[in-house]
Amino acid sequence: MTTTESVPAPASPRAAAGQPLLTVDGLGVEFRLRDTTVRAVGDLSLTVRAGELLAIVGESGCGKSVLAHALLGLLPANATTTGHAVLHEPDSEPVDLITCGQRHLARRVRGRRVGLVPQSPATALNPVRTGRRLLSETLRAHGRDRADTEQLAVDVGLDPADLDRYPHELSGGMAQRLVTALALAPDPSLLIADEPTTGLDRPLVDHTLDLLRRRCDNGSAVVLITHDLAAAQRVAETVAVMYASRIVEHRDTDQLFAAPAHPYASALLDALPDRAFRAVPGDPPMLTALPPGCAFAPRCPRRTDTCADRPEPTPVAGGGTVACHHPIPTGATP
Ligand SMILES: Nc1ncnc2c1ncn2[C@@H]1O[C@H](COP(=O)(O)OP(=O)(O)OP(=O)(O)O)[C@@H](O)[C@H]1O
Ligand code: NI
């Protein structure tokens, strides 16, 4: 399999590594249904820095994809989004992705400065265009050379011959690689990749992860949404663990994997085959009926009466935050 050996220069100026690229502050998303409200994202704050690969992990339904869609203005009409998410880039004014409006998002941000690898590739592809046409048109629309089409296919591990297929002729894994190539075509400074390795076999999983990792080497940033903790451990600098709409722990990857502070993060790691291989006991709560306090408390071996109050994210020794009244001591010295 061919890989890109060098890191190409980005299409637009990038912030210096370590500078905040996206600051999310108090983000909330609710869906109004006929007789209830789904609180899919609650009071979520985080910073993504230039050159960083942040992995967001957590059980199915905890709000990962809704977070991604909120940042790109892709939520349906029954959604209400609150809070802020400011994109800072060296060549332009900071823009609040939550308040700037659909017009600005569509013209200036989505698929340009912020790219999305969607979780469902099959529905994201225009069915009447071949992969080659989709990719070359996207490159041209962003002022890039159409001759890069085949290279981009190779970069994502797609055989250029398969570019002549229509979406319905692609396997799930091929469609996945094509949507990744389409998201990369505009060379966004921030790429949000929502389960980008679904349907890929192990060598292609690693190929895709390494491709995302390399993007960060020129000052771009990647938010990788994944169920695959091993993937997060392999390529992410930092990991945010989401539980029932909130981030419960956000720390340096090595530190989190060595000594998780939140009981839920610890239980997730215990579910790994090379650890205890024990599923997290119990079920997550319904997002229509979240308890006022800690949402993990009913499943938590460390819970006390204090957990009836919601824990706020607080600093952990060694860096990062944990939202728990009774965090597991990490052994790190302040
Ligand atoms: N349009 C919608 N209307 C109502 N509820 C929605 C809507 N979209 C998502 N939800 C709900 O929001 C919650 C979070 O969904 P989301 O897709 O973000 O989960 P996820 O963490 O990405 O899960 P998975 O790992 O399975 O992809 C779920 O309870 C889901 O049912
Ligand atoms: Ni999802």
From TrEMBL:
Catalytic activity: Ni(2+)(out) + ATP + H2O = Ni(2+)(in) + ADP + phosphate + H(+)
Top-level division of the source organism's lineage: Bacteria
GO cellular component annotations of the record: plasma membrane
KW Disulfide bond (keyword) present: no
Assigned keywords, A-Z: ATP-binding, Cell membrane, Ion transport, Membrane, Nickel, Nickel transport, Nucleotide-binding, Translocase, Transport
EC assignment: 7.2.2.11
CDD domains, per the entry: ABC_NikE_OppD_transporters
Protein name as it appears in the record: Nickel import system ATP-binding protein NikD
Organism the protein comes from: Micromonospora violae
